[in-house]
Amino acid sequence: MYFSDALKTTMANKPLILVTNDDGINAPGIRTLINIMNTLGEVVVVAPDSPQSGMGHAITLNSTLYAEQVFIDNGPQKEYSCSGTPADCVKIAIREILQRKPDLCVSGINHGSNSSINVIYSGTMSAAVEAGIEGIPAIGFSLLDYTWNANFEPSKPYIKTIVQKVLKQGLPNGIVLNVNVPNTSKKNIKGIKISRQAKANWVEEFDKRKNPQGKDYYWLSGKFVNLDSGEDTDEWALENNYISVVPVQFDLTAHHFIKELKNWNLNE
Amino acid sequence: MYFSDALKTTMANKPLILVTNDDGINAPGIRTLINIMNTLGEVVVVAPDSPQSGMGHAITLNSTLYAEQVFIDNGPQKEYSCSGTPADCVKIAIREILQRKPDLCVSGINHGSNSSINVIYSGTMSAAVEAGIEGIPAIGFSLLDYTWNANFEPSKPYIKTIVQKVLKQGLPNGIVLNVNVPNTSKKNIKGIKISRQAKANWVEEFDKRKNPQGKDYYWLSGKFVNLDSGEDTDEWALENNYISVVPVQFDLTAHHFIKELKNWNLNE
């Protein structure tokens, strides 16, 4: 079967929405996101066949990729399960699966935070960034609850609002949105706050153990440390029960440092 | 054996330099970088035991990590081979292997370009960024030659110059350097150019094949497309035989778009 044939259904005037994530195609977070998107457009899902958390912007260069159509629920969406990373899913969706460039790419809803420095490690956000590189408006959604049974209900109307705005207004080239939802009840959520990425890091604690052969090995774990006392950050918003929306760019140039760097006179 | 004991050698006043990469600890690129660093400080290498290209900022959350001392040449450096990603290597170096915070982290020399949008997918640069997050001055070095037998000779004096400057002047918090070297002879290199990240992307071409069981699979490949005609970009510098130095930040906030996003009035 050729994907292109499978998608030669008329898309009419509905927006074409690509949905992906990093927790895998069966995760409750993406199932919720698919349900919301089905009310807004023609939905195609291309998502990892297994969890890919912490994959950052990894792509699969040295091994093969599989992508096959799957049927998970009775929704109207088309779904493809892919053996690759979230960034791979977006690439293969655009080049091999979709008939036309999607109007929007949404990634998530991630089980766990992608606020502050977590954006760097996030497979959810790397998928959104990958779509952004391709000139597709893109949003990553995350809920601050790592559990499989996380309650995505309170986030639903906010996700719908944000997606509708982006479908209507678009996003400038080079910018995608990073949306994080506090883990609290519907009535406690105070609204949406446009924020900046908080300065924060992880203080790793490596749990050192011995394997049955007596060889040392480690588990990576750590403690999140917010180093930023600003009240305009995503961390502040989330701690105060706001949904944070951070505009994220993938031009990583520190433009403000170029002038000083030129003064280093490296050629002398 | 405890790493901490192994490193209780006096560091005197020499700078402590952490060396890593994404092509693996045996790659000629890192061996060259180690040799240069041995002339500048006390060197500890913590690098992947196998190639990790395209790993982006992946970290190992769901499996175990190994790190063990290895002896590859007769140089004065201490070396540890790690089963994880480049970002893992930096984390484990800082928390488990090194006795004190290093004065510098260098990553590379990568076999292949990490200019323009490649910085997003780069394991080499993710290691530098990881060190930067920890407040360590950090530089990623790459040579525009993907082959194992790449000629790193012409890059050597430039790498030494840049490292000496950074050791002397430091780098501001939140900034690391992305250095790319053109693949040309010593006499053709025109010098160092401070640049910005060119706007570019990859147009993927998925090579679709059938496995022996008749199932479709793909190889990811693609063509690099420079969309940026600016003469202040890293791509321009490299095409004109300059070594490009781009200051890279990991605050991904698109600060210039926050005001407009607030005008969207998402709470109404």
What do you see in this structure?
Chains A, B: Its main location: cytoplasm. Chains A, B: It catalyses: a ribonucleoside 5'-phosphate + H2O = a ribonucleoside + phosphate. Chains A, B: It holds the Pfam family SurE. Chains A, B: Belongs to the SurE nucleotidase family. Chains A, B: Its EC number is 3.1.3.5. 2 copies of one chain form a homodimer. With 268 residues, chain A is α/β, with parallel strands linked by helices. Chain A has a single domain, classed as Survival protein SurE-like phosphatase/nucleotidase (Stationary-phase Survival Protein Sure Homolog, Chain: A, 3-Layer(aba) Sandwich). Chain A has 8 helices and 11 strands. In chain A, the strands form 2 sheets. In chain A, strands 3-4-2-1-5-6-7-11-8 form a 9-stranded mixed β-sheet, with helices on both faces. In chain A, helix 3 runs parallel beside helix 5. The longest helix of chain A is centred in the middle third of the chain and has 14 residues. The relative contact order of chain A is 0.14. The N terminus of chain A is likely disordered. Chains A and B meet through helix 3, helix 4, helix 5, helix 6 and strand 8 of A and helix 3, helix 4, helix 5, helix 6 and strand 8 of B.
